[in-house]
Amino acid sequence: MAGVTPGKTFNPGLDFSSRSYGSLANKLESDFKRAHEIIQEKLPLGELKALLCVSFGNKPRFYIDARSGTAQLTDSTQDEPDVTLNIKPEYIIQFYEKKLEPRYGLFKDGFFNEASMPSGRIPVAIKFADLLTPHPPMPPKHADQFNRLPQPTEDIDQVKGDIKEFGYGIATNVLTPDQITIIKKAVQEQAAGEREAGIAQMDGGPQGPNQRLWTLVNKGEEFLDLLNHPIIDEFIPWFLGEHAIITTYTANIVRPGNVPMQFHTDQVAVQPPIRDLAFGMNIMFYLEDVTERNGGTRVYPGSHIGQVAPLDIFTVEGTVAAAAPAGSALIFDSRLWHATGPNREASDERPVILLFFMRSFIRQQENNFLSLRKDVWPKLSDRVKRMLGFYTTGALGGVDGEVREGLFVEWKEGVGKMRAPIT
Fold first, then answer.
1. Global pTM?
2. Is the distance from CB of 129 to CB of 39 less than 8 angstroms?
3. Could you name the domain of life of the organism this protein comes from (predicted)?
4. Which residue segments constitute the domains of the chain, with CATH numbers given?
């Protein structure tokens, strides 16, 4: 794998350490040169109306001055740049070749290395990266430009129609009040236990008020029971086919004072970016009334269709909160641009369950094969095992080459084995 140092050689006759098909230094120099050529080719970038500072690692920084409407490159300036980018030159090439989505490429390294995070006027940085691509995306329509938007309803056909048209729909009365109480209690107890144990996963800004509960299959039989809900059978096969698998099963508790999440799509890991096919579907169970004020998920209606993407992924302006009463389920296409909204209430928290399915050939975000606790395995029904990926389909998921369609993968200490489904 590129960038991964080879491991220990066990057989001296198979030592390849002295053999190479290329030079990393030469590649870096080639990428640096090609990235400069691409930027030169894409000039003028006059619509940026800004001064950009660009750095490629330890190479000398340079500037793109597009303030006057005709962009030009310069090695120095006396003025403060509007935006500063420290980016790998290979990302510039990948933007140009449509192999990397700009919003993903611009920010993915910054989560692990703060120096790689763009600074200044972020929409300018995004616009710059968009202009390097073969077909820059159009901004999605603002919510107030639609004659109608999806409304909470018990009409399942209407929900499906809304998903096709807007990328999301809201089904009401999915959970009864008693069921809400059972599940919410399990969420609250687990959240409190993780905070007390010092293992809570917090996010939502510098203060980290929000809390995430990961791998819910490990965290209570209530969450296993929820996987029997018929709404899964109604929507997931209809949208993704018969063999979709759970990629994540989590709870998200949004508390007052949070910072809204940056806008994203749930198939961001599909690179090169593919917009003409949905790879996933999310079912979000509401355990409280979800409103615009308490952190309701913000969406750009209709943003699942076409070559569209928000220019500014850090503002909720132009979006709408998917508000609905407790017991409802927000069901949405993985291409929809969305984000956790700000909770502006004084004290109330907004807990939801997120059940995210992907097509069977997509790698799961949560590695269920390593995450699943041993004591939970005996509790899993065949239905849940299929949802988690312990089932062969489409010549995938086998053990020791056995990939016949429709076999369950059984877990045992240190080994795996196959069995036919119980009929």
1. 0.92
2. no
3. Eukaryota
4. 25-132 (3.30.1050.10), 143-358 (2.60.120.620), 391-423 (no CATH)
